[in-house]
DUF2628 domain-containing protein
Amino acid sequence: MSENSVRLEVENHNASIEEAFVGKNYTTYYKKKWNEMDEKKRQTSWNFAAFFLSLFWLGYRKMYRYIFIIMGLFLAVDLLIFLAASGDEAMVMRLNNSVGMGLAVATGLFGNYMYRLHMNKQIELTAASTTELEKQEAMLRKKGGRSWLGVLNTVLIFIGYLIITTVLFG
């Protein structure tokens, strides 16, 4: 078997594993975006869904760890804003809006990269649990893809954040 044949076989294996995780939009969107990022040696590419939906897009793609990190950062920023601009409601609103817009832009720019990192971590965990390709693909279909339940979970997490901030700063 030639070196090119082996490389092609490995690329096909990786593509089938990635497609099992991503699902429907792998070949039409993510594979193209990730290839462009690799060619340009960049971690950024634009994702309109991630920009407009931010946290809810993360939930839709089952990236809960990022949601909790962002909510923790929001709480920290809220605390800083509360301490720095206490009593100035207009200032608090401007700062909160700026943070929200910053999140939207960052998610739009880095969403595809974050999703790739998330996918690679899930592939790594799955490969550690079984070497059988069919089992890996089945496990990755469950771990990956899209989830409206993930969006609902994100809404619930966000409501929890609102309750916490209301109790602490309300």
Notes: The chain has a mean pLDDT of 91. The chain has one domain: 3-169. Residues 3-169 form one domain.
